[in-house]
Automatic annotation (TrEMBL):
Protein name: ATP-dependent DNA helicase RecG
Highest taxon, organism lineage: Bacteria
InterPro entries on file: ATP-dep_DNA_helicase_RecG, DEAD/DEAH_box_helicase_dom, Helicase_ATP-bd, Helicase_C-like, NA-bd_OB-fold, P-loop_NTPase, RecG/Mfd, RecG_dom3_C
Domain Helicase C-terminal: 463-634
Pfam families for this protein: DEAD, Helicase_C, RecG_dom3_C, RecG_wedge
Domain Helicase ATP-binding residues, every copy: 279-444
Catalyzed reactions: Couples ATP hydrolysis with the unwinding of duplex DNA by translocating in the 3'-5' direction; ATP + H2O = ADP + phosphate + H(+)
GO molecular function, one term: DNA binding
Record GO biological process: DNA recombination; DNA repair
Annotated SMART domains: DEXDc, HELICc
UniProt keyword annotation of Plastid present: no
Length: 688
């Protein structure tokens, strides 16, 4: 076993000598131990190893120049600034300071020879550097590239470099991978790779460093992915070692639920119900993800899971991220389970005190076998008599801590509840390998009979009149429509139409239509009343913010207009599109955008126009946004992957999965040391 398996030391010398304020700044970056500092790698590099002729300066490049100040003056315009010109035999370069300090101009007098370093940019009068770093000529040049590290406000690069240099001498940098593994995957040694990335020589390609293609980067990315796979494997093993109540069921509820359905479940639903049923019957906690595109029937699968748990004597908790989605689940589950005699309660933050008290008592006494609600379910006062199954809908919309809190409502002394997570955001393959390797996954890859793909059309905002005419035609033909806006109140910064203003404009433009308004700031009772009226057909056109993004099911809605579609995320646009066409027949989603479009917005709208496949949408969304928001880890502050990239490093991820099994079986001490180096403190987020 290598020396890397030693326990982590308390903190590097950098933290001890930095003083309390600086130590807090290090903490903000997650830098506590020598290993933390040693693996805090540069964002980019500046080449101070050579002096660049001014004639070779290029916009966007960081470089070091040496020459003579030929002029220097303070100029007054919109602001007071110092401007100077640096010249050498090859050309001239402007230097500019937007903040002028006493004596600064005197130190930059004409005829003085200096070195100036910074990023070259195109100015009004040619190339220039704004706020260059000025040093004396003649001092020795460094022999390695200068690293630029991720930092936080108040923490200068010089302090980070000093602390990291000290940590590299203090940290245990022994290799956690045995020689056999390094050779099998052609990996560079760990310590030389790490030191090279902190201080690369000038002969190393800056492009290979920037693109993370250098063998040293490959080793670091492999290590990160391997540590994650080891942690996921450990999480799965730990879960299998926990006890859960076997909820095998006797068919008394599930059989009646199936018999009472007015339709036949799809093959995918039947398969998912069987998989979940088998998991519930086991004596270790289920940890299954149910994923399927919008409208694929996840709620029915959840109803069968709940029925099996309840007929086995357990309580079930169903948590949704918004009151509207929670209410939709409440309505659907009650529609199917209440006729079977299942006592259920509804719990949200907006409940009157007396109703809330009754719901809490029914849950604690075990009288309520099913509880549906929002984050109100995880509050301290909420207790269950025998919680056996936790269902989280749109699980990525919750913070990790919230999902953990509900899971802990079970009987901690004896049993953990089974856990079913549902998502209408399909998980791309690489994301599933990287973050769901410890979970079992059921996929609903069929839509119920009668559902046809929603047609998507793009309209420039200047064609608004055509869109209004289309809304009128659809409603007068007997269908209903949504008009979605991104904000409730005016925002000068974004200059977006508000839902309130749009509601008034549409009432004036379409006076024969009954136009309703829904937004997140409405009291819960009003929201419920508006949605009831829309479901009942008493509202023709519902103007809304994104509170209707998920879960809302109005079969007669056949048209969705999304205002300022360029401002929405790709997954959000796909979810909104899924609100129409749920009752069969043709449906249309109109993306109303305001030009000019950014490159990212153009890609989003193109993706929406080109495909209705949720998995393809998710793949493109992952490429644009990264995994954080898809997983709901953004709220936790946890970095998911600091160095590896799921799109470009799929081959490394495959190798890391294979190596994790190899290390666990043949080199358990190396596996433990490797995970300790890279995953300390992040384990709980893989268990949620």
């Amino acid at each position: 076993m290598t020396s890397a398996g030693k326990p982590r030391r308390a903190a590097p010398g950098a933290r001890k000598t930095a003083g309390v304020p600086q130590a807090r700044l290090f903490e903000r970056l997650g830098l506590r131990t020598p290993a933390d500092f040693a693996t805090h790698l540069p964002l980019r590099y500046e080449d101070e190893t050579r002096i660049t002729p001014i004639g070779a300066a290029r916009p966007g490049a960081h470089a070091l120049f040496e020459g003579e100040i030929v002029d220097s003056e303070i100029r007054f315009g919109p602001r007071r600034e110092l401007q100077a010109t640096l010249a050498d035999e090859s050309g001239r370069l402007g230097l500019r300071w937007l903040h002028v300090y006493p004596g600064q101009q005197a130190r930059l007098h004409a005829g003085r020879r200096v070195r100036a370093r910074g990023e070259v940019r195109a100015g009004y009068h040619g190339l220039e550097i704004v706020h260059p770093l000025i040093t004396e000529p003649g001092t020795p040049l460094p022999d390695t590239l200068t690293p630029v590290y991720p930092t936080t406000q108040g923490l200068p690069q010089a302090a980070l470099r000093k602390a990291i240099a000290r940590a590299l001498d203090e940290a245990d940098l022994g290799d956690t991978l045995p020689a056999a593994v390094r050779e099998a995957y052609r990996l560079a040694d760990f310590e030389p790779s790490l030191r090279l990335l902190h201080h690369p020589g000038p002969d190393i390609s800056l492009e290979s460093l920037a693109e993370h293609n250098h063998p040293a980067w490959r080793r670091i990315k492999f290590d990160e992915l391997l540590a994650q796979q080891l942690a996921l494997a450990d999480a799965r093993a730990a879960r299998r070692a926990q006890a859960a109540r076997s909820l095998k069921g006797d068919g008394s509820l599930t059989g009646r639920l199936l018999a009472g359905l007015p339709f036949e479940p799809t093959g995918a639903q039947t398969r998912a119900v069987a998989q979940i049923g088998a998991d519930l019957a086991r004596t270790h906690p289920m940890h299954r993800l149910l994923q399927g595109d919008v409208g694929s029937g996840k709620t029915l699968v959840a109803a069968f899971a709940a029925a099996q748990a309840i007929e086995s004597g357990a309580q079930v908790a169903v948590m949704a991220p918004t009151e509207i989605l929670a209410e939709q689940l409440w309505r659907k589950l009650s529609e199917w389970l209440a006729p079977l005699g299942v006592a259920a309660v509804w719990l949200t933050g907006g409940l009157p005190a007396a109703e809330r008290r009754r719901a809490l008592q029914a849950m604690a006494r075990g009288e309520a076998r099913l509880a549906v609600g929002t984050q109100a379910l995880i509050q301290d006062k909420v207790e269950f008599e025998s919680l056996g199954l936790v269902i989280s809908d749109e699980q990525h919309r919750f913070g990790v801590g919230q999902r953990l809190a509900l899971n802990r409502k079970g009987d901690q002394a004896r049993y953990r509840p089974h856990q079913l997570s549902m998502s209408a955001t399909p998980i791309p393959r690489t994301l599933a390998m990287a973050f769901f390797a410890d979970m079992d996954v059921s996929v609903l890859d069929e839509l119920p009979p009668g559902r046809v793909p929603v047609r998507t059309r793009l309209f420039d905002d200047r064609r608004r009149d055509e869109v209004l005419a289309r809304v009128g035609e659809v409603v007068r033909a007997g269908r209903q429509a949504y008009w979605v806006c991104p904000l409730v109140e005016e925002s000068e910064a974004l200059q977006l139409q508000t839902a309130v203003d749009t509601h008034e404009l549409l009432r004036a433009a379409l006076p024969d239509l009954r136009v309703g308004l829904m937004h997140g700031r409405l009291p819960a009772r009003e929201k419920s009343e508006v949605m009831d009226a829309f479901r009942a057909g008493d509202i023709d056109l519902l103007v809304s913010t994104t509170v209707i993004e998920v879960g809302v099911d109005v079969p007669n809605a056949g048209l969705m207009v999304i205002e300022h579609a360029e401002r929405f995320g790709l997954a959000q646009l796909h979810q909104l599109r899924g609100r129409v066409g749920r009752g069969g027949g043709e449906a249309t989603c109109v993306l109303l955008y305001q030009p000019p479009l950014s490159a990212i917005a153009r890609e989003r709208l193109r993706a929406m126009y080109e495909t209705t496949d949720g998995f393809e949408i998710a793949r493109r969304d992952l490429a644009q946004r990264g995994p954080g928001e898809l997983l709901g880890l953004r709220q936790s502050g946890q970095a998911l992957l600091r160095f590896a990239d799921l799109e470009s490093d799929e081959d490394l991820l495959e190798q890391a999965r294979e190596a994790a099994a190899w290390l666990s079986a043949d080199f358990p001490e190396h596996a433990r040391a490797h995970r300790q180096r890279w995953m300390a403190g992040a384990d709980q987020y893989l268990r949620s």
